Amino acid sequence: MQHATVALLTEADYLAGEPYSPIRHEYVDGHVYAMTGASKAHNTISGNLFARLRPHLRGSPCRAYMADMRVRVEAARAYYYPDVVVTCAGPDTAADAPSHHLTAPVLIVEVLSESTETIDRREKMRAYAQLDSLQEYLLVDSRSARAELYRKRPEGGWEQWIAALGETLRLDSVSLDLAVDDLYEDIVF
What we know:
By secondary structure, this protein is an alpha+beta fold.
C-alpha cells in the first residue's frame, strides 16, 4: 500500500504568493485550485454586466469589480474570484481596506460554463450564502440565454427568479432593472 501526504497551504502563504502567480488561484480550506481561462461568451457576458453596473453605481457608495477581485468567505476559509461582484460596505470601500479582496459583497455574479457550473451552483453558492452582507447571487448561463437570480429573504432562506431573453431581472441589492437581452448583447448561440 502506498501512502501520500497532502500539504495544505496556510491562508497567509496563499495571500503572500497569489500576487506573484501568473495565473489566479482560488483557496478553499488549505487547498488551492488554479482558475481556467474563460470563453469569449463568458467574457462578453461579464463585460456586458459590468458595463451596466459601473455607470449605474456612479456617485453611490457601491463599487463593481470583475474577474480579478477576490471575495473572502471567512466562515468557509475560502477566497473565490467571482466574475462580477458589487460591494457597498465601508470595510471594502474605505481607504485602508484590503486592496485585493472584498469581505462584504451585496451582489455576486458567476457566469456558468461547462467546467464551472457545478462548483458555482454547489460549493460557491453554499459558501457565499454564509456572507451576512450578500443579498443576491446571480448565475448567468454562457451556453443559453438564461439567468437565475437568488435573493436572500428577510425571514431566512433564498427565493429564485429565472429570466430569459425579453425579460427583466430586478437587482434589489443595487436598485437596477437588468434586461436579460443586455447580458447577452453580441452573443450568438
